[in-house]
Q: What sequence folds into this?
């Protein structure tokens, strides 16, 4: 069995055997002689590939170790990097919009994120003071 980000059943104990799964109707179960994947001479149709742990190898791992291995896949890292890129772009866009609302001299002065936040705090305080007067 391959570990990837879509494999969530590894964290849960198995609830039924392969022969009860309903795949026997599709030819995936044991044949009339009982020598299919669920039969006495069966097993899985193919074993794990080299470097790919089998299900029994994963059962002794802790939940944290299974999660760590799942996160080590290239597919997971690519998806995570994409999500992070979108998050950072939204974060920077929010700062740019906040920056447009703050008065500075000169108006196009480049400010760091912390400067934008501090200036926004001061500006909000000033506006509250103006409203209170």
A:
């Amino acid at each position: 069995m391959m570990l990837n980000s879509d494999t969530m059943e590894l964290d849960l104990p198995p609830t039924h055997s392969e022969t009860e799964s309903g795949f026997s109707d599709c030819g995936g179960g044991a044949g009339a002689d009982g020598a299919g994947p669920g039969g006495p001479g069966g097993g899985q149709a193919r074993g794990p590939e080299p470097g790919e742990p089998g299900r029994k190898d994963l059962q002794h791992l802790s939940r944290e170790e299974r999660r760590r291995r799942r996160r080590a896949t290239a597919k997971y890292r690519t998806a995570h990097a994409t999500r992070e890129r979108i998050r950072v772009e939204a974060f920077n866009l929010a700062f740019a919009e906040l920056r447009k609302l703050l008065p500075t001299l000169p108006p196009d002065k480049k400010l760091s994120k912390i400067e934008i936040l501090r200036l926004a705090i001061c500006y909000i305080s000033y506006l509250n003071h103006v409203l209170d007067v």
Notes: The first helix runs from residue 55 to 59. Residues 13 and 104 are 60 Å apart (CA to CA).
